[in-house]
Design goal:
- There is one protein chain.
- This protein is of the alpha/beta class.
- Among the domains are: 14-59, no CATH class; 129-142 and 153-268, Nucleotidyltransferase, domain 5 (2-Layer Sandwich), CATH 3.30.420.
- The protein has helices spanning 3-9, 13-27, 72-84, 91-98, 104-121, 197-207, 242-245, 247-263, 269-284, 291-302, and strands spanning 39-42, 47-50, 56-58, 129-138, 159-170, 182-192, 213-217, 231-235.
- The strands form 2 sheets. It has a 5-stranded mixed beta sheet.
- The longest helix is centred in the middle third of the chain and has 18 residues, at 104-121.
- It binds zinc ion (ZN).
- Residues 31, 33-34, 36, 50, 52-53, 55 line the site of zinc ion.
């Protein structure tokens, strides 16, 4: 959505509240006390009243704005920023754009929005042709590791491991020199502790359809995959060739790294998943255009995410 349309459509706090109310009612309001779904709307208080037990529910209660003191305007602007640009925004930058004096509530707002994106994408199971790859993201050294000498390569404390998957389907009716072109569908990226088979296999069991065909590089942990997947094609390639053998997933990981580099030099490993949630959510909806704003708003009315994260 462009900025002019955004500011014309949502000029004041009442317009944001009304839009939020509309989306919330489309999704359905549930009484926190009795589970009832029939409510009266009390205009004078801006609250729902359960028809069954008379319990009152505020417009924010049970949504992503639960317990948030930030105005609706902030949430709408944050949703607009996150859905209108390919790049992302650090909490520091959003804080500056909003002119808000405190950093923490702005950081929490973005954290909750990215968590909501992640929980939406968690519902999907990949199918068809799947490419698997590991990514190593630069991250700040955890406090307890700081005094130890830095290891290099995969075991490095400065690298956080990410397990990435992308699904693709053959584009019918087209053939190029390299064979039939494929179109990428959904991607998923998950921060993992290690690349052992015992870590990776359960993720695939849960997130990948049994009849999918897997392409991976020849990583030892993938050996067990035969037990969970129908067809599995390890591609033995020298390291410098990996990009060619598994082009989509390789490119996608690089784009995710670029998005993060635009915001930070190093990411705290504890929050890397949160940023990857946003990257994958936006990638998976890259053709939605202006509809993405309303999609994220819809996700927001149904994701309470009221937890607080101690930034340490
Ligand atoms: Zn009730």
């Amino acid at each position: 959505m462009n900025l002019i349309y955004f500011t014309n459509t949502y000029p004041n706090e009442e317009s944001w509240k009304l839009k939020f109310k509309e989306i919330r009612e489309k999704h359905g309001v549930t009484c926190p006390r009795c589970g009832g779904t029939e409510h009266y709307w009390k205009w004078d208080q801006w609250q729902y009243e359960c028809k069954n037990c008379k319990t009152r529910t505020t417009l924010r209660s049970g949504t992503i704005m639960h317990n948030s003191k930030l105005p609706f305007q902030y949430w709408f602007i944050a949703i607009h920023l996150l859905t209108s640009a390919r790049k992302s925004f650090s909490a520091k930058e959003v804080q500056r754009q909003l002119g808000h004096k405190l950093y923490q509530p702005v950081w929490e707002m973005l954290y909750k929005l990215r968590s909501a994106m992640g929980s939406r994408d968690e519902r999907y199971q990949l199918a068809s042709q799947i490419d698997l790859h590991e990514g190593f993201f630069s991250s700040i050294t955890a406090k307890e590791e700081k005094d130890k000498p830095l290891k290099r390569g995969w075991g490095s404390q400065r690298k956080t491991k990410v397990f990435a998957k992308s699904e693709s389907r053959v584009v019918e009716g087209k053939t190029t020199k390299k064979g039939k072109p494929r179109r990428v569908g959904f991607i998923q990226m998950q921060v993992i502790e290690n690349l052992e088979a015992d870590t990776i296999t359960p993720i695939l069991e849960e997130k990948v359809s049994k009849d999918a065909v897997l392409d991976t590089d020849d990583f030892p942990s993938y050996v067990k995959l035969k037990s969970v997947i129908n067809e599995y094609n390890p591609k033995v390639s020298p390291t410098e060739m990996v990009g060619e053998a598994l082009p989509w997933i390789h490119l996608t990981i690089n784009n995710a790294k670029k998005m993060l580099l635009n915001m930070y030099h190093d990411v705290n490993p504890a929050f890397l998943q949160n940023y990857l949630n946003e990257f994958c959510y936006k990638f998976n909806r890259r053709y939605y255009g202006e509809a993405l704003f309303e999609r994220l708003l819809t996700v927001s009315v149904s994701n309470k995410n009221s937890f607080r994260y101690n930034r340490g």
